Amino acid sequence: MQRIDVGVLGATGLVGGRLVRLLEDHPWFRLREVGASDRSKGKRLGRLVADDEGGSLWSGAADLVVKAVDGEYASPILLSALPSGIARDLEPRLARAGHLVVSNASSHRMDVDVPLIIPEVNPDHIEAARRQAARWGGAIVTNPNCVVVGVAMALQPLHEAFGLECAVVTTFQAISGAGKPGPAAGNLLDNVLPYIAGEEDKIGKEIRKILGRATADGFEEASARVSATCTRVGVAHGHLASVSMGFRTEPRVEQVVEALAGFRGGVVDEHLPGAPQRPIEVVPGDDRPQPRLDRDTGGGMTVTVGRIRACEVHHVKMFVLAHNLVRGAAGAALLNAELCHARGMSAHTAHASAAR
Ligand code: NAP
After folding, report:
1. Which residues line ligand 1 (CB under 6 A)?
2. Within 13 Å and on the Cβ side, how many CA atoms surround 101?
3. pLDDT tens digits along 130-186
4. Active site residue 340
5. Whose CA is nearest to atom 40 of ligand 1?
């Protein structure tokens, strides 16, 4: 199979660096080009990300010379890990130029023709991107906020079985969720920051879009009410969330465990290379999930859920954990790109046609 060229925008950042590492030996995609800010332009990628905790970059990636993000790109698929302020204008421009832009940024997640996808949860929302492609040649496809990925994944089988009416979400978010350079270590040692700018607002909106229905001209959102409180804690990677839920039909705790443990997701037959064997793993024991012990389950792509118990205010409560840089960002975008390719989206971009 001939591999498709992809580019990574924001390749020198925490998410972009992970994307570059995940693309090593990818069976469908070949990393052809990378972009970042003017600070990095013209330098070899290996010089800029070699000091990351993942060790040296693989040689094909390390040798790539970083381009400006508004330069010329030849790859049909561009994986974007840019700050939302830059992505807002740039991503539509790239889509209009015929690229399939698969984005981590929040700027276009709620747009009417832009799918906000977790492949195991709402793969059919991808059809909305065809409306963009018909207009522009290219399209933007997005993955959710790094907390929302794990929480929405865990809520989906419960919503389907019992009808989610409300959720109260309290997060304990890792330092790497703030990007480079992140909060000063001194501010997080012996401390918890009880506010993350712009975060709480996204959580309910994105969950409702993901759990909703794609229609012929947009999305019909799920009606569940969501109250979110977001905090930053001194953990390197892995966002933990405490979630308390109320349903239309009150489930027993065992039914909730069963629905979560049995969840396989909507793309199991598509054999996407980045899909974990188990999208959700229910961990036993009163002291799990923990970021350090559980974030790398399924290569960082499995969401772990534990402490599922009756709630004194709503019906049931639980803890949900997802690796923010993998399932919450780089791995999520790559899986979305794989879904697009499996469903023929990449073949419809103007760039793909030109490249053939
Ligand atoms: P980051 O570590 O700060 O990296 C930002 C990247 O964007 C770098 O490559 C940087 O290049 C580039 N950049 C910054 N300013 C730019 C400009 N003016 N023009 C062009 N490029 C510019 O951020 P991150 O944590 O990887 O996050 C990237 C995106 O993913 C953000 O939209 C974020 O909200 C989203 N996201 C992050 C996470 C997470 O856990 N961190 C999870 C989900 C989604 P230089 O190195 O050259 O400055």
Report:
1. 10-16, 36-37, 39-40, 69, 81-84, 86, 104-106, 146, 176-177, 179-180, 324-325, 328-329
2. 32
3. 999 999 999 999 999 999 999 999 999 999 999 999 999 999 999 999 999 888 888
4. no
5. 177
